[in-house]
Amino acid sequence: MSKRFHELIAEASKVVLDKDTEVRLAITCLLAGGHLLIEDMPGVGKTTLVQTLGKLTGLKTQRIQFTIDLLPADVLGSQIFNPQEHKFSFHSGPIFAQLVMADELNRASPRTQSALLQAMEEGEVSVDGMTWELPRPFYVIATQNPHQQTGTFPLPESQLDRFLMSLELNYASKGTEVRILQGEDPRAVVKRMSSLFAEGEFEAAVKNIEKVKLSESVATYIANVLEGSRREGFEGAPLSTRCGISLARAAKAWAFLDDRDYVRPEDVQHVLIPVLGHRLGGNHGIKRGREWAAVLKKATPVPV
Question: Which among 70, 148, 162, 176 has the fewest CB atoms less than 10 Å away?
Fold first, then answer.
């Protein structure tokens, strides 16, 4: 099964050039069953990455463009009166998909942002006192503009914590930009792509992550990272137990991609900054949080 995921990484890297590590981290996040937040300047390939992953995984994908006037009902759906049947019926919104791309999430008002909270945590939505299950698997990959840009509303810490990982794509190198300018439009390439997974196969792979073993020494290492964030004098926000669970699950997914059924300390180190960055940064931004995560990573002794 991991061979199929290596094919996925290779195919995605043909569209999102010179971002092999970021592509693998994004796939690691999905494989770990978590939601992904991508923060960066417009035009660096965030949307292209999400569209590519949707095509190659075969997951039913919906895109929601978040704007200041978007309402919760525009995301979740609403009850509409049916005059023939003389009753209200629920019309589902675009969130009823397996992979939801929340484009420029922090441009929406806090009220609309909060509409995603229950969906991301529990895999269901409630409207007018009724609850509806979302498709399985269910992922949110959200993009956001840097928090200092005008017209943005910072995501609250409670919502940031719902994202298992966060990434920055950054600008491509000069050589890569030359290849992009000379090459075919990435959107045309994505349209021609087909899924590498049969129906239900991706979801089955996610369940295999539970079989990857985490030793006591590695679990202690993760606990030491959490403890380090709570010490007096550390600048970043203190990390929760849920963050530790996310770090362990991401490390298991990274180990799975390396064809192992056990986690090494270096697996934790590979995913540590993406898992911790947005949680430590809070409203200071992912970039600042990643700097604090690097400090924490360096300060925590690695088991041998």
Answer: 148
> Does a structural domain hold residue 280?
yes
CB 58 within 8 A of CB 8: no
Residue 189 falls within a domain, yes or no? no
Is residue 134 domain-shared with residue 15, that is, in the same domain? Answer: yes
Task: Kindly state the tokens that stand for 293.
Answer: 């995560």
Q: What pTM value is reported for the model?
A: 0.89
Which residue, 289, 297, 291, is CA-closest to 271? 297
CA distances from 20 to 116, 223, 274 (A): 29, 29, 15
Q: Are strands 163-167 and 87-92 parallel, antiparallel or unpaired?
A: unpaired
**Residue 224: domain span:** 212-304
Number of domains in the chain: 2
Q: What is the pLDDT of residues 5-44, one digit of tens each?
A: 888 888 888 888 878 888 999 999 999 999 999 887 776 7
Return the number of other C-beta atoms located less than 10 Å from residue 78's C-beta.
15
Give me the count of residues in the chain: 304
CA-wise closest residue to 294 among 238, 229, 205, 217 = 229
Strands 99-103 and 139-144: parallel
Where a domain ends, among 171, 204, 237?
A: 204
Q: Are the C-beta atoms of 106 and 100 separated by less than 8 Å? A: no
